[in-house]
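Lab meeting, item 3. Inverse folding demo.
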């Protein structure tokens, strides 16, 4: 059975630096035999989590929007690739909104590999650290889910700056390794 890999692009720059890393990753995964799909959060209708905790009482969210489709795809995937720009040393607002809205689903998300692709203008890799911790916090709430790889796409401010360095290749190679992992029969 082919490994199912879901890419989630969390930038409004549809062909921006993090999206290009995601495309490279998924190309690598496909070359290794995986089946891939991409969700662009910019295309999705997602209300903020209001903390009403309706989900705690009922297991479902009061908002009827695209988060349910996103959660279904996450639960059906073997691996999730989160691609986000760094905004003020953190993940993008769209990605944070998606994660917060997972409150209704996170107990049902299990046995997933997570990969993270970050694009930032800074040349210091440490500028991604907060974003890594944010995603690590989310993963830590999930059952048997693991952080498998991170690409810190530094020196990428303008669209396509990412093409100047080695990050696209790094993402591609990580994708090939993710696509051929042998833990799915
Ligand atoms: C609101 C905003 C905040 C940003 N904050 C940072 C930052 O803290 N550190 C950094 O290195 N780059 C920062 N940047 C630059 C972006 O991370 C960079 O342009 C990145 O390539 C965007 O990724 P994308 O093309 O995938 O959207 C910021 C950009 C914006 C628009």
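The presenter then showed the designed sequence:
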């Amino acid at each position: 059975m082919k490994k199912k890999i879901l890419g989630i692009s969390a930038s409004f720059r549809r062909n921006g630096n993090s999206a290009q890393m995601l495309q490279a990753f998924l190309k690598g995964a496909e070359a290794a035999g995986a089946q891939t799909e991409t969700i662009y959060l910019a295309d999705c209708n997602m209300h903020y989590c209001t903390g009403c905790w309706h989900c705690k009482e009922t297991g479902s969210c009061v908002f009827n929007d695209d988060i349910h489709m996103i959660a279904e795809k996450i639960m059906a995937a073997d691996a999730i690739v989160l691609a986000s720009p760094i905004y003020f040393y953190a993940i993008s607002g769209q990605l944070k909104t998606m994660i917060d809205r997972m409150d209704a689903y996170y107990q049902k998300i299990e046995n997933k590999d997570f990969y993270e692709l970050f694009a930032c203008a800074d040349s210091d890799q440490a500028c991604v650290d907060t974003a890594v911790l944010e995603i690590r916090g989310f993963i830590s709430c999930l059952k048997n889910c693991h952080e498998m790889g991170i690409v810190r796409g530094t020196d990428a401010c303008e669209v396509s700056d990412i093409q100047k360095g080695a990050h696209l290749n790094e993402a591609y190679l990580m994708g090939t390794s993710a696509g051929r992992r042998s833990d799915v029969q």
